[in-house]
Amino acid sequence: MRNPIHLSKCLTVYAAATLLLFGCSNSLTSRAPSQAAVASAHPTATAAGLEVLSAGGNAFDAAVAVSATLAVVEPYSSGIGGGGFWLLHRARDAHQVMVDGRETAPLAAHRDMYLDEAGAVRPGLSVDGALAAGIPGEPAALVHIAKKYGELPLAHSLAPAIRAARDGFAVTTHYQRMAKFRLQALRQSADAAAVFLKDGQVPPTDFMIRQSALADTLQQLADKGRDGFYAGAVAEQLISGVKSAGGIWSQKDLSSYKVIEREVLVGEFRNYRITTAPPPSSGGVALLTMLNVLSGFEFESLPEVERVHLTVEAMRRAYRDRAQYLGDSDFVEVPVQLLTSADYAAGLRAGIHPQSATPSDLLPGPQTIPGGQHTTHFSVIDRQGNRVAATLSINYPFGAGFVVPGTGVLLNDEMDDFSAKPGTPNVYGLVGAEANAIAPGKRMLSSMSPTFVESDERLAILGTPGGSRIITMVLHGILAFVEGGDATAIVTTPRYHHQYLPDVIQHETGALSNDTKADLQLKGHQLKEVESGFGNMQAVVWDKTRNVVSAASDPRGEGVAQVK
Ligand code: GLY
After folding, report:
1. Least confident of 146-160, 239-253, 314-328, 425-439
2. How remote is the CA of residue 55 from the centroid of ligand 1, in Å?
3. Does residue 417 line the site of ligand 1, with CB under 6 A?
4. What is the pLDDT of residues 144-178, one digit of tens each?
5. What is the pLDDT at residue 463?
6. 26 CA to middle of ligand 1, Å?
């Protein structure tokens, strides 16, 4: 069998092949979608994307508008104090790239910065407050995308976000849950408490959150581009605010922050091309490993218990490798080719016992683990066929819980995505290896996995938040689509997850039948029900044969998907 997965080393060859594919595709398939669509985690952000598309913007302008608006209306998920990955497909030349706006460790950061004198991790230091924050990448990424790929001025695409910051948005029950969860951290920061709480308490529903300082900072970005955030008055406020709160940022950190255009990872599964995120995301590598393992099984026709067993065993092995080998590939050697190769998958497959679970402690490696409802995702397509899948984060809900005085910028706590002490769990119990140790200027490992799934006839644009469960949720979404499901099936499919350690299948209520659960236990699996469900997937689907675009927002969240 030929190697189904390869790193897209040569985008020009890939682009040419794709053009050929569509150029020669039979007359039953369409070259450009009949409609545009946006699916995001918040109605105001979806409206912002559609507004910009209606004004003549393309999918990339819409992506800038949606990202910036999510930064305002979902402060617990992403922000201009954070970062993300934007997976782009430009229709005119089939150019595909991942814009990496991931945060970096400050230049004064060092490997043991969160350890005490005895070498133990100091709890909370990489989670709450200014020392937990990496150098933000989202502002630079938005400027980059608008300038290189957009058709409208940056100021035009940022206008809906600035408006939302000034006019405010209404507190929902989801906002309340997130604010309650981070109440202590938010109370520690005067500016955070003033904006996100009411009299030091979680605000009531429908209370309006207005962010005039953030609106001013976004306006600086709109007026001055990159220099509106990484230089001048805003940068000075950021540095002095961070330093006075115990952080270690410098002007050099801000001036030297670089957006990186990364070659996408491309694989194949059941005649679908999978385009996904390379390191410093661990998502693409793990996804392709799991799909390669599953591609050798006729698992679609198997009873549910066999199918879940094989999928879980693929997850277990991919997550073991994630913990062992993945990190920022600009700093450490990541064996991407090996981990995503067919031969490697064949070896993993051979080690799977059809009747019994492999105890994770028989697969040597460091531990790893779950995540929550932080982070956000959106999917966009325009009528030219340009598309964006973007997953953005400030890490924990409300990030570090710290708003830099005078700027309205809520800082990320993405430093916790590093291994503070290789072998010791982070706030989610995540334990990594040397590959993800802290180093100055290094990007911390991520699970964010924006993905395209495409055949001659159909395309899906998808992704989700959810910490380390992101990758298995995207796997479920891919499998649902490849088996013929539509956008709604992608976002609603029941979810279960295994991540090597703890050695347990986490599953949503109702995701597995009672018979399947009993049979899985007989095979040696342990099960844990996660009652609240997990993830908030946003999907856009283009049926090229009928030329119909559809979109769906996860019913577990409060997002909106719209086709126009
Ligand atoms: N902070 C979540 C992630 O990057 O995976």
Report:
1. 425-439
2. 33
3. yes
4. 999 999 999 999 999 999 999 999 999 999 999 99
5. 98
6. 41
CATH classification of 264-372+448-563 is 1.10.240.10, yes or no?
Answer: no
The H or E element spanning position 276 is: strand 272-276
For the record, the structure tokens of 287 come out as 């996804």
Of 323 and 229, the structure prediction assigns the larger pLDDT to 229
Residues in Cβ contact with 55 at an 8 Å cutoff, skipping those fewer than 6 apart: 152, 156
DSSP string, 303-343: -HHHHHHHHHHHHHHHHHHHHHH-S-TTTS---HHHHTSHH
Tell me the domain boundaries of the chain.
Answer: 43-261+378-436, 264-372+448-563
Residues near 347 by beta carbon (within 8 Å), at least 6 away in sequence: none
Strands 538-543 and 548-553, by their bridges, are: antiparallel
Query: pLDDT, tens digit, for every residue of 315-347?
Result: 999 999 998 899 999 999 999 999 999 999 999
Token pair for 54: 């209606």
Cα–Cα distances in Å, from 434 out to 326, 328, 445?
9, 11, 11
Choose between 372 and 56: higher pLDDT.
56
SS3 31: coil
Binned at pLDDT 50, 70 and 90, residue 24 comes out as: very low
pLDDT at 420: 82
Which among 562, 542, 563, 374 has a CA at the least distance from the CA of 464? Answer: 374
With a 6 A CB cut-off, is 375 part of the ligand 1 pocket?
yes
Measured in Å, residue 469 CA sits from the centre of ligand 1 at 10
**What CA–CA distance (Å, rounded) separates 152 from 192?**
32
Residues whose CB falls within 8 Å of the CB of residue 293, separated by 6 or more in sequence, listed in order: 313, 314, 317, 318, 345, 348, 349, 352
Q: Which atom of ligand 1 is nearest to the CA of 102?
A: 4
The predicted pLDDT at position 13 comes to 36
Active-site residue list = 375
Taking a C-beta distance cutoff of 8 angstroms, is the pair 179, 198 a contact?
no
Looking at the predicted structure, is the pLDDT value of residue 407 above 50?
yes
Concatenating the DSSP letter of every residue in 135-166 gives: BP-HHHHHHHHHHHH-SS-HHHHHHHHHHHHH
Q: What dihedral do alpha carbons 467, 468, 470, 475 form, nearest 10°?
A: -170
Q: Can you give the pLDDT at residue 283?
A: 97
Which residues, in sequence order, are bridge partners of residue 40?
560
